[in-house]
Design the sequence.
């Protein structure tokens, strides 16, 4: 679950009754289900420049200790990261080659 | 990368959406002390409907005619409360800026409210199914111009050169660091600012979803889109077009220009050259408002 969604759920518990049209829930659609190709970073070729994360419209790529990590719950499979990576370190195989997991 | 995303990840914009990327980069720059508003448009997907929203900051869904009036009110309320560290960010499309919200924008600029108006330009009314707007490029096919638009796009940047903006800039999704730099600058001004961002839309312009950034880069390289900023009465051109002939490649990369004739192509290129030439001359002046 996204940190933002968790934070908002916590806030909701402490809020008094809301009067009027106020959005209290965070949109959290499992957009990863749209994907028909999956970007996969080859760790050995990645130089951790962060360009893929800068240009991912979904904010699905983050820099972690072990390298760049893609959140497949939200990655829509647009392919922008594979095109923008200066090292061409992101493969883009068909989603069907992966076993469907409960992600 | 901030600890907490200020814009949710599970949003139902199309694959490869430039508008979502602009929204994300904007909040990355401005941080949590921001209040945003969107009119009916694709950006309304971020604001959400019912009790749901994608923003992790306060947001308002406005009407299409008058987002800048909403922004004016919020900006003045913040001023009365002495909250001068909060940025008011308008986030509208080309329809809501060039056409339907233009008089409201003009009024907000004239009154001098402290706010940043971002216009992500996807060159049509995309949210309602790709109808032409005054920002649509000559020759582009849309639902309402099936054989290609017959008129040239309105040049809103040149129009706004004659308004008392504290800061004005163009930017592109093809260069996010440049957009962030400009937005940071705008947020530090004490008056109205306008940032016009080119947003190539894979769904409406008809190119593969992976090409959003590449199309935006090509627009700048070819001179179809000019990158500049205006501050303290002076225009600075950020990037010189490499070769106007590249406009052919730019057009060929998008199916919406599939039926463009040689004559229209020439007109598009001639207009781009003319715009650049005008901008170069304007950049020699230092008396712009
Ligand atoms: C006054 C008014 N006219 C028309 C509409 C219908 N409408 C809703 S969204 C939209 C498209 C807006 O286009 P744009 O501002 O370019 O944003 P985009 O959808 O392209 O992101 C229109 C025409 C409306 N909501 N209000
Ligand atoms: S753009 Fe490529 S090289 Fe850079 S961090 Fe991403 S995967 Fe690694
Ligand atoms: S394919 Fe698109 S959505 Fe998925 S990580 Fe790459 S840029 Fe982001
Ligand atoms: S139509 Fe274009 S701007 Fe609108 S959500 Fe889809 S990709 Fe984004
Ligand atoms: Mg539009």
Sequence:
């Amino acid at each position: 679950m996204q940190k933002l969604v968790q934070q908002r759920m916590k806030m909701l518990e402490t809020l008094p009754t809301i009067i009027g049209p106020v959005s209290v829930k965070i949109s959290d659609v499992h957009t990863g289900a749209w994907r028909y190709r999956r970007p996969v970073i080859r760790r050995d070729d990645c130089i951790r420049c962060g360009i893929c994360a800068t240009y991912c419209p979904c904010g699905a790529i983050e820099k972690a200790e072990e390298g760049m990590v893609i959140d497949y719950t939200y990655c829509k499979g647009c392919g922008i990261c594979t095109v923008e990576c200066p090292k061409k370190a992101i493969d883009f195989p068909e989603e069907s080659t992966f076993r469907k997991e409960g992600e | 990368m901030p600890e907490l995303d200020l814009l949710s990840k599970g949003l139902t914009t199309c694959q490869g959406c430039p508008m979502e990327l602009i929204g994300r980069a904007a909040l990355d720059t401005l941080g949590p002390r921001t209040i945003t508003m969107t009119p009916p448009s694709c950006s309304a997907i971020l604001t959400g409907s019912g009790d749901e929203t994608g923003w992790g900051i306060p947001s308002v869904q406005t009407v299409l005619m008058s987002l800048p009036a909403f922004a004016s009110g919020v900006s003045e309320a913040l001023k009365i409360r002495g909250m001068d560290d909060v940025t008011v960010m308008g986030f509208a499309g080309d329809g809501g800026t060039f056409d339907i919200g233009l008089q409201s924008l003009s009024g907000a600029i004239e009154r001098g409210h402290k706010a940043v108006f971002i216009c992500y330009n996807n060159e049509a009314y995309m949210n309602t199914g790709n109808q032409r707007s005054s920002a649509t490029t000559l020759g582009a096919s849309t639902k309402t111009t099936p054989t290609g638009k017959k008129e040239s796009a309105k040049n809103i940047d040149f129009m706004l050169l004659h308004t008392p903006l504290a800061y004005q800039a163009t930017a592109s999704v093809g260069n996010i660091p440049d957009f962030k730099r400009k937005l940071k600058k705008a947020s530090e001004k004490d008056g109205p600012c306008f940032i016009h961002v080119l947003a190539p839309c894979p769904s409406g312009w008809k190119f593969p979803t992976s090409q959003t950034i590449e199309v935006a880069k090509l627009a700048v390289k070819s001179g179809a889109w000019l990158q500049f900023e205006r501050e303290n009465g002076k225009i600075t051109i950020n990037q010189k077009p490499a070769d106007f002939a590249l406009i052919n490649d730019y057009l060929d990369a998008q199916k919406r220009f599939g039926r463009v004739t040689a004559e229209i192509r020439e007109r598009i290129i001639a207009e781009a050259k003319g715009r650049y030439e005008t901008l170069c001359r304007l950049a020699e002046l230092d008396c712009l408002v």
